[in-house]
Amino acid sequence: MREGDLLWEPRGPSKLSAYMEERGFSSYDELWRWSVEDLEGFWGSIWERYEVGPPPERVLADDRMPGAQWFPGTRLNYAEQLFKRARPGATAILHASESSPLAELSWDELREQTARCAAGLRRLGVERGDRVAAYMPNVPETVVAFLACASIGAVWSSCAPEFGVPTVVDRFKQIEPRVLLATEGYRYGGKDFDRRDRVRQIEAAIPSLEHTVLVPSGWDELLSEPAELEFEQLPFDHPLWVLYSSGTTGLPKAIVQGQGGILLEHLKKLHLHVDAQAGDRVFWFTTTGWMMWNFLVSGLLTEAAIVLYDGSPAQPDMDVLWDLADRAGITCFGTSAAYIAACMKAGVEPAAGRDLSRLRAVGSTGSPLSPDAFRWVYDVILRPMFDAFNFALTWLHDHTVSPISAAISSLWHGMGDAINWVWVNVIRPAFDAVSGAVHAVGTAFDNAVTFIGQMWDRVKGVVAVPINFVINTILNDGLFAAWNWIADKIGLGDLKLHVNPIPGYATGGILPGYSPGVDNMLGMTPGAVRVAAHRGLRRLAAIVDREGVTL
């Protein structure tokens, strides 16, 4: 298949189509344009639609960058917004790992555990504004601890337990956490990993730590006292969590995102983009060290349940996550382009022997998805739907007893056979013949692009700073600045000179950056970011002091 070929168009009602109809938009492009040109109107509509609170006096009081002021004077709490959408008795979280089978946590259990955890953190002295760091796997305890922090107004930050000690310390030491929650061990790839020694090294390297809670041995003690769940009312821009850049150009840069900004961004993203509905089960394969974990937890801001998995996506084989999709009834399957490519290479057939009939969407992030991978994902959904249709026709034929209905069902069955014959003998062979050639060319081109990208990734961090010093300091700020001043004076303003530096690398200090791909997302996130540096299309490293960027 070629890039740009149309695979699918949305049909039928959705949360996005309902929102567009309410606002009088006939196309997504119209809606998108409004969302980025009328920031107050768009984000005010999200506040109103999801009943975040009383109507604000202002949506955007000051649009200067940096320093924009969103929803001044409002008070809210992310955790309160999440729990006010709870459905008593319903499932909130499904979870599994290499060492534990699929299990469920209800909304009632989640609320009780969050209340107990918040009470335990308060006993340890945690207050509004304190930082709590987590060296934890992708398990329910981590979600509970995060929601407890949010309810208090403490600031959350997490690293995955596969991170080494220097990697963790480089991140956590900057934010001076008061409490550390840390796993004693985890299983990955069929092997058990003990993390107690690493935890001791982390404790010794971060002088601000006052308490460490080991999980599982210290978890029950932390949750030992029953309590009512209380929510600190916080300013819109009060920090919710701290993420980090990759650390390519020095120490990882802290990315602080606020309670209100992330609340509105994720309400918009999970409802309008993901279309999470009541009864849905949203999954994203991630660790706690990746921003997609934070995104996944926000799935609880909708009527859907979320699905957690901790372990290797290839243990015991590449089928493990598709087996999980079957058992958990996943409706939105989120993963990475690398995983999809690995499934293709391994010849995985997700629908073979599994019931994926509930699966409505497959999400990919982390790197660009190739055209062939798009086709593969499309076939994963299309072919099972076709097979199910054919099966239904066959069942109707075999179980019809009256002569009239038998004749009708035979006609339907014949139509199904005819469609199947055309597909098997005409359409599919033609597609395979063409796609084989396209795949060969595309693979060669993709390999070349990947190789060039890898080579550039290796050298750009070294060469970008001196090159940009020459471009910015000597040329743009020196020679060209002098010429541009003269050009203005003698009426030659259209002959000004400027050279664009390599994006994302400063000559020193911090450079305002951007988030690739934000131009087709709705809105520009209010109050989401205080930041760092940029690493290109492969991975968002950070964005500096630019609160108008969607992550």
Give the helix/strand layout.
Blueprint: H1 15-23, H2 28-37, H3 39-49, E1 60-62, E2 69-70, E3 75-76, H4 78-83, E4 91-97, E5 100-106, H5 107-123, E6 131-135, H6 140-152, E7 155-159, H7 165-175, E8 179-183, E9 185-188, E10 191-194, H8 196-205, E11 211-215, H9 219-222, E12 234-235, E13 239-244, E14 254-258, H10 259-273, E15 281-284, H11 291-297, E16 305-310, H12 320-328, E17 332-336, H13 337-346, E18 361-365, H14 371-399, H15 403-489
Parallel strand pairs: 4-16, 6-7, 6-8, 8-11, 15-16, 15-17, 17-18
Antiparallel strand pairs: 1-2, 3-12, 4-5, 9-10, 13-14
Helix pairs in contact: 2-3, 5-6, 7-8, 14-15
- How far from one another are the termini? 30 Å
Number of strands: 18
Largest sheet: 6 strands, mixed
Strand content: 5-15%
Provide the spatial order of strands within the biggest beta sheet: 5-4-16-15-17-18
Basic shape: globular
Task: From the alpha carbons, calculate the radius of gyration and give it in angstroms.
Answer: 26 Å
The amount of helix comes to 40-55%
Overall mean pLDDT stands at 80
Report low-confidence residues grouped into runs of 5 or more.
389-413, 503-520, 527-551
Count of helical segments?
A: 15
Structural class: alpha/beta
Please provide a written account of the structure.
The protein is an alpha/beta fold and 551 residues long. 45% of the residues lie in helices and 15% in strands. The strands form 6 sheets. It has a 6-stranded mixed β-sheet, sandwiched between helices. Strands 7-6-8-11 form a 4-stranded parallel β-sheet, with helices on both faces. Helix 5 (107-123) crosses helix 6 and helix 7 (165-175) packs parallel to helix 8 (196-205). The longest helix has 87 residues, at 403-489. The model is unreliable at 389-413, 503-520 and 527-551 (pLDDT under 50).
